[in-house]
Amino acid sequence: MANPQPHVVMLPFPAQGHIKPMLMLAEVLCHAGFRISFVNTDHIHNIIVENIDKSPLSQFPGFRFLSIPDGLPPEHPRDSSSIKDLFTSINSTGKIMFRDLIISLLRRDDLEREEIWHAPCCIIADGIMSTLAIDVEEELEMPVITFRTYSATCTWVYFHLEKLIEQKEIPVREGDEDIDRLVTCITELEKVLRRRDLPSICRCEVDPSILKFFLEQTSKMRRASGLILNTFEDLEAPIIRQLHSIYSKVYTIGPLQALLKSQMDDSPVAGAATGSLRQEDRTCIAWLDKQPAKSVIYVSFGSVVVMSPDQILEFWHGLINSGKPFLWVIRPDLVFGNGPNGLPEEIMCPTNERGYVVSWAPQEEVLAHCAVGGFLTHSGWNSTLESITVGVPMICWPLIVDQKVNSRCVSDIWRVGIDMKDSCDRSTVERMVRVLMEDKDEEIAKSTSKFANLAQKSVREGGSSFCNINKLIEDIRSIQSKKDDCKTK
Ligand code: UDP
User: Fold this and answer.
1) What is the pTM of this model?
2) I need a labelling partner for 280 at 20 to 30 A (CA). Which of 117, 239, 369, 396 fits?
3) Most ligand 1 atoms within 8 A of CB, residue of 276, 278, 281, 383 to mutate
């Protein structure tokens, strides 16, 4: 009998920005004929399952969702304000549940939708689920390949957290005299990264238990047998080289969305509907269709960031005062504080000629639209990479986790945008929007177009990400073959 196709268990961290790239990778692997058991938390599973029929993944008989409890009661919030609880419960209950699940998958073959599912051969786990996956690897001899959904640069910074503590570079306090001093203990970033640009977990205001969580995950993650990153060689080559000092195998396979499209060019919807946990409002595309080329600034702060009513008002006035048309994603949970949805009254006025507001947009389609000329973003890694891929310059307003590192790279390494870090008064917003949309900084224009071309090149035949995904597929096949050989001996 022919060897079965590899069966891989995939374990994302339960948040939009982590699930989406993991689902895209799942789709690429399904396309290569793999079986994928995609393990969400019950909470995410209940959201996703409603839309599963619309997902391109539903066409693959070798794909299935499984789920485990995250350990929190169903009504417990799971947004950024209560992330600490989620971290704690995932590390305790989630860990036990994941181990039990793997044991049950190893114990017997499953029959699902008339397909036989043999035992899995390896796990692809989110880097910040390493405490769940690595112990299983060691106890049950199941190789783990870690998928860190951050940039290579930010991943590299996280590997220096202990060093940053030792050298007393962190914690960083807003108002520290030397907040703009360069951090010199991270190879390759000595001339770029200031204390101000370090991840938000390095700040005094952030609960120290969150830093502890990331220290623990990062230390476990080192023991994985390979590292997957959603980035591409030409964007972060020097840092990727550094990461090879930790992992013998580093698979840079991004931009995943472009890779997916290039691998499935026979299917125009491939990947398009994958991974959004919210309902997209597509009316904004019709609005964009009516706007002149490159005239619109698209504004979105991702799926997790929350802001105060004052901050959103500053953005609102800044955008209006800039005189530029804008498309703004205001999630119902974007603002904390007063009023229905927490929105100040001024912003409650519905869409007018100049501005269009939606609660969730088909972001990649928006960024690729010819009317969009700039992106005011929170600098989440997916958003940053999506913008780079289609050559849209950015204004960065980073707040949490990896965003401050990303925005520094955007403005000072790749030169594909400008960074308004740490201040969002209306005059700054207005000035930044004008600079981006009017000044047409030549260096930024050149760099955005250069990196968009390199991104596309990387996923085409012979490109670095194209070769790396094939390497990953081959490596997993050889893990499966070794397992099969052991069984038959
Ligand atoms: N996104 C979207 N529609 C929106 C806003 C965001 O589809 O209205 C998607 C976006 O394309 C990206 C993801 O949500 O893939 C957000 O991930 P990112 O890493 O940028 O930020 P996070 O949400 O993790 O802070």
Assistant:
1) 0.94
2) 396
3) 383
